[in-house]
Amino acid sequence: MTRFRLSERVPAHNFYRQLAELIDWRFLYEETQAHYSHTGQPSLDPVVFFKLVLVGRLENLVSDRRLVEHCAMRLDILYFLGYEVDEALPWHSTISRTRQLYPAQVFEHLFDHVFAQCVAQGLVAGDTQAVDSAPVKANASLHRLCEKQPPEAAVPSMRLAGGPDREALSQPAAAVSTTPAHVLRRVANRQRQVQQQTGHLGARRPHARLVSNKTHYSPTDPEARISIKPGKVRALNYLCSLAVDTAQGVISHVQADLADSRDSVHLPEVVAHLHHRLLGHGLPLQDLVADTNYSSGLNYALLERQGITPWIPVFGKYKPAIEGFAYDAAADCFTCPAGKQLPFKGYDKNLDGSLLKLYRASTRDCRLCRLKATCAPKSNKRKITHTAYDPHYRRALHRQQSPQGQRMRLLRQSTVEPVFESLLQHYGLRRVNTRGRASAHKTMLLAAMAYNLKKLRKHQPPKCRTIALALPPPPPVTPLFELRTRRMVASRKRTKKAAPKKT
């Protein structure tokens, strides 16, 4: 008989052995109890499931099939999962079905549990957070894109009266085009210009097309969006929004967003979740650092209202002053070079939802002005569109140009960008193996948890290397003149003893 124990084969310094003792996984039974029935065949243990998917992120394995094959050949992973050598691991399809069974709230609770351990070990300061985003490839291909249909063409002309519309129910919401007709005409004109002017190979072929989120969708993953980043190819992606604590680089928040939206649109949601998580641990958020993509007057006003200092560089299109036009804050109007006033007329909104203030001159003043040919050549009067958050922009510009603003920029580059690079290269976040925004959010949470667990395992509290010894009190110090007196008395006594006696 052969005597074999995994506990004796896996050394004490092994990563997975230490990870099994680092986190108390028993709380997952209460979190997942509502998703199981008390009857039927025994299902996959929730602790085993979460350990398996975390191993997939730690080993940079995206495929569930490869994950099961890899775990079956590693003794330390078997010990971490609680399996013996002769026990069979779960089937890969069981992992996929269980991932779909659990809602995203269970994954978020596990992320909060790991984050609380990092806070308890002193890895999180909480006062300064760095925010950034990056595209993550979706589990879909551009070659399978389908063209969106107008609403009248998506509904069949004949169906059973009083019965459900099965054809309409089978189509996703992304298959119906909700874009206005004038925007579609603009997209078609841009496609014709690209085909005529571009020098790319195959651009002038009759079947060449310029795909857009307004005209096409993916039937494989309808929530994936077409996006492109400078220097990279066009692909179907999700947007990963990330917040990192600047003290030790611990991930404090992560979420999956649609890739066809701007980064500044998602900042209020990121700040709300981040602020709530940090306050739950008694850590107030004071400074938030981000790049220019998050520049928005609405974001500046939102952060300042909550007592958070936004260290976000101002977008390049912002101009603190308009050349030739003087602004009067008391009257809220501009004065043109000819001396005519452009009073405030109303508000408007841009793509980010930020407020814009509209100023217009009168038609009579511009028609009689000698500067109209250079000031307003294509319109009958001069119009000025200015942001309603001009004071917030000015404060952000002042912070950006200060020495502390330069230090904050370097702090963001040295904190959040290396974390993103690690997640994409070493934690399987270059591509998600699931479909849907909710499933992509679970995958990003798992990658962030794996990163924080490695941080937590490597952290070692400082040890005291000095030893305090109880020494006896030193003898009292004798003055120098007293020592000399004692020596003279002792020498005299020795002289008297040595002298010969008289007879």
Which ranges are low-confidence, i.e. pLDDT below 50, for 5 or more consecutive residues? Answer: none
N- to C-terminal distance: 107 Å
Mean pLDDT: 83
Rg calc: 35 Å
Q: Major sheet: size, sense and barrel closure? A: 6 strands, mixed
Q: Strand share of the residues?
A: 5-15%
Q: Which structural category fits the helices and strands?
A: alpha+beta
Q: Tell me the overall shape.
A: flat
Describe the structure concisely.
The protein is an alpha+beta fold and 503 residues long.
Overall description:
With 503 residues, this protein is an alpha+beta fold. The chain contains 19 helices and 13 strands. It has helices at 6-9, 15-22, 27-31, 46-58, 64-72, 75-81, 92-101, 104-120, 151-154, 166-170, 181-197, 263-280, 297-305, 363-367, 372-375, 390-401, 403-426, 437-458, 480-498; strands spanning 128-137, 146-147, 216-217, 225-227, 235-245, 251-258, 287-289, 309-311, 326-328, 333-335, 341-349, 355-360, 383-387. Strands 1, 4, 5, 6, 7 and 8 form a 6-stranded mixed β-sheet that branches. Strands 9-10-11-12-13 form a 5-stranded antiparallel β-sheet, with no helix packed on it. The protein has a two-stranded antiparallel sheet with strand order 2-3. A hairpin with a 5-residue loop joins strand 5 and strand 6 (251-258). Helix 4 (46-58) packs across helix 5 (64-72), helix 5 packs across helix 7 (92-101) and helix 8 (104-120) runs parallel beside helix 18. The mean pLDDT is 83.
Structure characteristics:
five-stranded antiparallel sheet, 503 residues, alpha+beta, 13 strands, six-stranded mixed sheet
